[in-house]
Amino acid sequence: MASLLSPTVTTVQHNLKCTSFSLLRRTSPNNFCLYFNRLKGYHGRCNAFFGNIPDDLLDNAINLDQSLSQSPIFQSGIMQFQKVTGELSEMQRWESLVFAGLTWIYLTARPGVLIGAIDAYLFAPVQLGLDSLSGRRSLKRTDFVIGDKLGEGSFGVVYSGAIVPKNVTVEERVQKRGRGKTLELDERFKEKVILKKVKVGVQGADECGDFEEWFNYRLSRAAPETCAEFLGSFVADKTSSQFTKGGKWLVWKFEGDRNLADYMKDRNFPLTLESVMFGRVLQGIESLKRNALIIKQIMRQIITSLKKIHDTGIVHRDVKPANLVVTKRGQIKLIDFGAATDLRIGKNYVPNRTLLDPDFCPPELYVLPEETPSPPPEPVAAFLSPILWLLNSPDLFDMYSTGIVLLQMAVPTLRSTAGLKNFNVEIKAVKYNLNKWREYTRLRPDLTILDLDSGRGWDLATKLISERGSLRRGRLSAAAALRHPYFLLGGDQAAAVLSKLSLTK
C-alpha cells in the first residue's frame, strides 16, 4: 500500500502529523500561527485531497484562525490549560482527559444528574420568582368560578371552570343545575380552566395533591409539551356550596374536557377522532386503514411524551386512557401525576408501596425491585440515579401500560371493563406471552388492525406486553419503541401533513 501513495501525499501526511503533535508541546500561544503558516505552503499539495481550493478562501480561513489564536481570551485559555497540565506527563494528560470524558458521560446519562441540578438550583427558583411576580403563586378562591363535574378519582374531583375577570363580580352561590351551560354561554368567562379539588378527610389525598403539584411544576420546566399547562394552586379560605375551608385546588389551562377513555366509549372509535387528529376526514382510504392511521398517530404521541418524561427521571405509573387528554388540536397530553415518582431524587417513592390500576399495571407490580432500599438524601440519590436506571430500567413500567392502551384501541372487545379484566386473567395464565394468549384466548378478539402491514402493530404489542427478563430487561423502552418498524412507515404523519396543506389551501 505504501508504494501506491505519491511522494507528495506522503510528505503532506507526515508533515501535518508532526506539526499537529509538536503543537501540543509548544509553550507560547503565538506558535499556533506557525502551524497555519506551514499549512499555507501546501496549497498545491492539498489539491490531492480536497480538489482546487481558491487561494483567497484558504488565506481568509488562515487569517481568521491567526486572529483567533492571538486573541486574549484564547491565549488565556491556553495558558491556563498549560498551567494545569504543565507538570503532568503525556500519560497523565490522557488519563485526565479520559476521566473528564467519563465524568461528563455519567453526569449527562439518564436521568440527568447535571441537568437535574441545574433545574433544581437555577430553573426552579427562577420559575418561583416569575410566578410570584405574575401572581400565579397567590391564586384565590374568588379568582375562579366552578362549572360541571368532569370526573372523580380516589383522591380528587375534577371540574370545568373559568377565570373570573377583574371587572366582574360573581355571586357566591351558583345554582348547580345548568351552571356549566351558563358558563359556556356567558361571554364574560373567556378563559376556561380545569380545576381539581383534593378530597378532604381522605387518607393520602393531601400527600397525593402535593406530589401532583410538584410534578406539574417540574414538568412545566422540563417537558411542558407532554402535559396540560399548569396554572397553580390555591387553598379555599371559607366553606361554601363548592368549597371546603382548607381544601386544596389545582388549576390547569383548559385544553380539552374529554380523555381517550371518553372517546373509546363511542362505537365508531377511532373514527370519531379522525377530524381531531388530522383536521379533516381522510379521503381515498378505506376505513380499516384510516382506523390504523389514527391509532398509530395516538400511539406515536403517547410514547413520544413518555420518552421526554422518562428522560427527566419521572415515571408516571398510571398510564391509561382516562389519564390521556385529547386537546382540540389533536394533541395527546398526560394528566394525573399523583402516582408519579421522580427516581432521580426519590420523590414519591417508598419501597414496598405502589400506586397502580390493576387493569393496566405490569406483572412486576413495583417500579423498582421490592428489596430496593429507601432513597438517601436528594443530592446523594441524584448522584447515584444513573446506576439505578442502568440496573433496573424503571421507565419500562409505563411501557407495559402503553401496550395495554394499544390493545384497547385496536381490539374493540378489550375496551369494556369486563373484557379487560378477562384479558388480564388470561395473559397472566400464559405468563404474559401475547403470542400464546392469541392461540388460547376465548375472547375471540378482532386483531385485524394490528395485523396490517405484515403484523407490525402486533409485533410492537408483543414487545410491550411482556415480562421483564434478566437484568430487568425484556420490554421496549420509549426510545426503542419509536424506532420500531410500526412507526417507521409514517403513514399517520403523512396524513397529518396532507390534511394541514389541504386546510391551508
TrEMBL record:
<protein>
    <submittedName>
        <fullName>Pkinase domain-containing protein</fullName>
    </submittedName>
</protein>
<dbReference type="Pfam" id="PF00069">
    <property type="entry name" value="Pkinase"/>
</dbReference>
<dbReference type="InterPro" id="IPR011009">
    <property type="entry name" value="Kinase-like_dom_sf"/>
</dbReference>
<dbReference type="GO" id="GO:0004672">
    <property type="term" value="F:protein kinase activity"/>
</dbReference>
<keyword id="KW-0808">Transferase</keyword>
<dbReference type="InterPro" id="IPR008271">
    <property type="entry name" value="Ser/Thr_kinase_AS"/>
</dbReference>
<dbReference type="GO" id="GO:0005524">
    <property type="term" value="F:ATP binding"/>
</dbReference>
<feature type="domain" description="Protein kinase">
    <location>
        <begin position="144"/>
        <end position="487"/>
    </location>
</feature>
<dbReference type="InterPro" id="IPR000719">
    <property type="entry name" value="Prot_kinase_dom"/>
</dbReference>
<keyword id="KW-0418">Kinase</keyword>
